[in-house]
Write a structure and sequence with these properties.
With 106 residues, the protein is mainly alpha-helical. The chain has 4 helices and no strands. It is 57% helix and 0% strand. Helix 2 (33-51) runs antiparallel to helix 3 (54-70), helix 2 (33-51) packs parallel to helix 4 and helix 3 (54-70) runs antiparallel to helix 4 (77-95). The N and C termini lie far apart (105 Å). Belongs to the Asterix family.
């Protein structure tokens, strides 16, 4: 067993534990995808709410899911949850029908 240690080609002083690079040192490593998807989700959900466009509301839900999936756990979840709830409300409001006024029977 001691002869096995003598034939080990690895150099113990050259082995270092991997540490992932931080974004404070290199800001180019930060992924802007969740922020862009969050902004797109807000825009599409507002279009879905105001213009009653169903496809805009569904794209807003899709963008919210992508934003949630690509976000880091350290990010603020309040803005993401508000964007998600806004997109869900845009879908619900676009499918709700406005009641028609009753016409007189004569």
């Amino acid at each position: 067993m001691s002869s096995n240690n003598m034939n080990d080609p690895r150099r113990q002083n050259k082995i270092f534990r991997y540490k992932p690079p931080t974004t404070e040192n290199n800001p180019t490593l930060e992924d802007p995808t969740p922020d862009y998807m969050n902004l797109l989700g807000m825009i599409f959900s507002m279009c879905g709410l105001m213009l009653k466009l169903k496809w805009c509301a569904w794209i807003a839900v899709y963008c919210s899911f992508i934003s949630f999936a690509n976000s880091r756990s350290s990010e603020d979840t309040k803005q993401m949850m508000s964007s998600f709830m806004l997109s869900i409300s845009a879908v619900v409001m676009s499918y709700l029908q406005n009641p028609q006024p009753m016409s007189p029977p004569w």
